[in-house]
């Protein structure tokens, strides 16, 4: 399974409402002076949740983003990709993201604690594959026991 988060640090469809990844001091009509809440760190949560592949891409780099998505989809197990995607309507300063994003200066790691340290200390504009684990994906056993399925159906009958 691959989970993709398009992150522009704002809920643009709700007239510029701060999102979980919005900086605490971002001033808006909905949150004058900012929320005061520390921003959610999607890549840290992905690592802590056991993702076997964690990466960040930039929507202004469609080829690089496509390559990361292919790598994520073909990686066994749970993959997580954060795509930085500016919302210039409510965050005009994000036009500059294209000048700030850069390839991660360190190689992909298979060490989850090293990956977490990198995410917690980066500038938020490193793009590329951050973590690629080697844990085997969950393999669900396949059962031909139709009786089990019928029992479940019967439980939901009114």
Overview features:
28% helix, 5 helices, 158 residues, two-stranded antiparallel ribbon, globular, 5-stranded mixed sheet, alpha/beta, 7 strands
How does this model look, in words?
The chain is α/β, with parallel strands linked by helices and 158 residues long. Helix content is 28%, strand content 20%. It has a five-stranded mixed beta sheet with strand order 1-5-4-7-6, sandwiched between helices. It has a two-stranded antiparallel ribbon with strand order 2-3. α1 runs antiparallel to α4 (112-121). The longest helix has 13 residues, at 62-74. It starts with a strand and ends with a helix. The mean pLDDT is 80.
Summarize the structure.
The protein has about 160 residues and is an alpha/beta fold.
Write the layout of secondary structure elements.
Layout: E1 2-7, E2 10-11, E3 17-18, H1 42-48, E4 53-58, H2 62-74, E5 79-84, H3 97-100, E6 102-103, H4 112-121, E7 126-132, H5 146-155
Parallel strand pairs: 1-5, 4-5, 6-7
Antiparallel strand pairs: 2-3, 4-7
Helix pairs in contact: 1-4
Number of helices, counting only DSSP H or I runs of 4 residues or more: 5
For the terminal residues, how far apart are their CA atoms? 34 Å
Helix-strand sequence: EEEHEHEHEHEH
* Radius of gyration from CA coordinates: 20 Å
Helix percent band = 25-40%
Shape descriptor: globular
Coarse structural class: alpha/beta
The average pLDDT is: 80
Number of discrete domains: 1
- How many beta-strand elements? 7
Give the DSSP E fraction (strand runs of 2 or more residues).
15-25%
Poorly predicted segments: none
**Main sheet record:** 5 strands, mixed
- Strand arrangement, major sheet: 1-5-4-7-6
């Amino acid at each position: 399974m691959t989970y993709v988060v398009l992150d522009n640090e704002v809920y643009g469809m709700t007239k510029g409402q701060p999102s979980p990844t919005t900086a605490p001091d971002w001033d808006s009509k909905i949150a004058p002076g900012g929320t005061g809440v520390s921003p959610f760190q999607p890549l840290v949560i992905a690592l802590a949740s056991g993702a076997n592949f964690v990466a960040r891409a930039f929507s202004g780099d469609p080829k690089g983003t496509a390559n990361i998505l292919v790598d994520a989809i073909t990686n066994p197990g749970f993959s997580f990709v954060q795509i930085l995607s500016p919302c210039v309507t409510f965050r005009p300063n994000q036009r500059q993201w294209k000048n700030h994003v850069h390839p991660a200066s360190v190689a992909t790691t298979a060490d989850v604690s090293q990956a977490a340290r990198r995410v917690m200390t980066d500038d938020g504009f490193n793009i590329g594959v951050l973590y690629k684990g080697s844990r085997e994906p969950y393999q669900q056993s396949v059962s031909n026991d139709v009786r089990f399925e019928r029992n479940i159906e019967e439980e939901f009958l009114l």
